[in-house]
Specification:
Layout: H1 3-16, E1 20-25, E2 30-33, H2 35-41, H3 45-48, H4 53-56, H5 66-73, E3 77-85, E4 91-103, E5 106-116, H6 118-134, H7 137-142, H8 158-171, E6 177-180, H9 187-196, E7 205-209, H10 215-223, H11 239-242, E8 247-251, H12 258-270, E9 272-273, E10 282-283, E11 287-292, H13 296-301, H14 307-313, E12 316-319, H15 328-345, E13 351-352, H16 354-362, H17 368-382, E14 388-389, H18 406-435, H19 440-447, H20 451-460
Parallel strand pairs: 6-11, 6-12, 7-8, 8-11, 13-14
Antiparallel strand pairs: 1-2, 1-5, 3-4, 4-5, 9-10
Helix pairs in contact: 8-9, 15-17, 18-19, 19-20
The protein binds adenosine-5'-triphosphate and magnesium ion (MG).
Length: 464
């Protein structure tokens, strides 16, 4: 194939990708400016291609342009968050990687790849604003945001009460708490109880899920940002500052990016933070509660959490047993949920009959207390008897994930074992996603495969 054809193919590929791509040659002229980049910066590629970069983007220099840094200083920049105004005056935020292509010690070209995260950035700002709204307990009360304390926790089995007693003791100390429990076991409930029954109850309680955001945004969200740090950055307090004096709940800490974990550790050791791009050290006094839904020894072993950070977070460690290991709590919880939905649905169910109790106790609850609540809620919305809930009212789909379609089995002669297994795998993945409300992380956990693997399979089987 001729070099020219290769170039044509490359250009076509570049126009298909979601990331913006901008390439300069060694003289600083643009040689590639793909459609995503043009869409992002609202520049017509005709006005950019073959033109000197400095003529087109007049206000950029080595200090504020990673492309010029790469071209003139041979410096690479990885995953740098940039906020700037595009030609239409709209603020956009991108994550950029810019590298010089060096051949024989000379820069032959520089490549910039930009991922548009404007939407995610806006969402993160919204989260911060909302958090600020509810940061004060008085405000939370006035806005009727439900907060929990130990009185709301139901249970009597020995293993569970042991954990609750330790949690109660923890509420009166400032030490970090690490809560491990499967999904739906009540980690958030316990974290809130520790705060709202403790000495810090009149100070803010702020929760942040560590899996929800990419690293650079999570960093800004936690530690705040400072003007002048990078183009367009604004002065904003992060969650640490907002939670000062109170408690910060770091949910799903095992999903926090590894690099950021090191920064978190430093903050916890030194008790001050520095906003991203800032120079001032701000003292903080924040009690950290972290949660995780995978066994701690596993997340340490597979490198999802830094050992040093884990030991710093795990001063008081609470392991909440799954519901199937504390069956004594099931009926007590079921009755509490019946009471709750009596009020919500204006019903008057008074008893669970023996068939209902037996069915509830026998089940294993992969979704723990949340799943039990959903089962009761479903039954309460359907029940016709005035006062009685029976086993028949309870829809427990135990077979959902053990499903092997008989029809598929009959088809095996046509398609062979590989295709059959694939169709089975597809079926199981669809069911798992349904069961976990399309939450890929949870479904992956249930299926005991990596999240990325599941995502790959979802793509492969064209699910959703
Ligand atoms: N012991 C309990 N008593 C009363 N309600 C409970 C109890 N445990 C859990 N719940 C209820 O079950 C639901 C799930 O609890 P929570 O959100 O705290 O679980 P979680 O462990 O944080 O789950 P996830 O890992 O999915 O975030 C909530 O509605 C909570 O109020
Ligand atoms: Mg939770």
């Amino acid at each position: 194939m001729r070099a020219k054809d290769y170039i044509m193919i490359m250009q076509n590929i570049l126009h298909q990708v979601d990331e913006g791509v901008h390439v300069l040659d060694d003289k600083g002229n643009t040689i590639i400016y793909n459609e995503s980049m043009s869409h992002l910066e609202k520049m017509d590629s005709k006005d950019v291609i073959k033109k000197p970069f400095k003529d087109v983007f007049k206000n950029l220099n080595q200090d504020n342009s990673t492309l010029l840094r790469a071209l003139e200083l041979k410096k690479s920049t990885y995953n740098k968050k940039q906020t700037y105004l595009n030609k239409d005056g709209k603020e956009i935020t991108t994550i950029n990687t810019t590298v010089p292509i060096i051949i024989d010690n000379e820069v032959k070209a520089v490549v910039e790849v930009a991922k548009n995260i404007t939407k995610i950035q806006e969402m993160s700002h919204t989260i911060l604003e909302l958090q600020k709204e509810i940061e004060k307990p008085e405000k939370a009360k006035s806005k009727k945001i439900k907060t929990y304390n130990f009185k709301n926790i139901i249970g009597k089995s020995e293993n569970f009460m042991e954990v609750i007693n330790r949690a109660m003791k923890a509420s009166n100390s400032p030490a970090s708490v690490f809560i491990y429990g499967e999904t739906g076991t009540g980690k958030e409930l316990i974290a809130q109880s520790i705060h709202f029954d403790g000495e810090r109850k009149n100070k803010p309680f702020i929760a942040q899920n560590c899996a929800a955001l990419p690293e650079s945004l999570l960093e800004g969200l936690l530690f705040g940002t400072s003007k002048g740090g990078f183009t367009g950055a604004v002065d904003r307090a992060g969650l640490f500052e907002q939670a000062n004096g109170g408690t910060l709940l770091l949910d799903e800490i095992n999903s926090m990016p590894y690099e950021l974990q090191a920064k978190l550790l430093r903050v916890l050791q030194e008790n001050y933070i520095r906003r991203v791009g800032g120079t001032k050290d701000i003292p903080i006094d924040v009690r950290i509660i972290s949660t995780c839904n995978e066994p701690p020894n596993e997340i340490i072993a597979n490198g999802k959490i830094r050992k040093d950070l884990f030991y710093r977070l795990n001063i008081i460690s609470l392991n909440i047993p799954p519901l199937r290991e504390r069956k004594d709590d099931i009926i007590m919880l079921a009755e509490k949920f019946i009471h709750k939905y009596n009020e919500l649905y204006d019903k008057n169910i008074l008893v669970l009959d023996d068939s209902a109790k037996e069915k509830l106790i026998k089940y294993d609850y992969p979704g723990n207390v949340r799943e039990l609540e959903n089962i009761i809620m479903g039954a309460m919305s359907m029940v016709e008897d005035e006062h009685l809930l029976t086993g028949d009212n309870l829809i427990i789909d135990e077979s959902a994930l053990n499903y092997i379609g008989h029809d598929n089995y009959n088809d095996i002669g046509d398609c062979g074992i590989n295709e059959y297994l694939e169709s089975l795998e597809r079926e199981i993945i669809i069911k798992a996603l349904e069961n976990y409300n399309n939450n890929v992380s949870r479904a992956a956990q249930y299926l005991k495969i990596k999240r990325q693997t599941l995502q790959h399979k979802i793509k492969k089987y064209n699910i959703g």
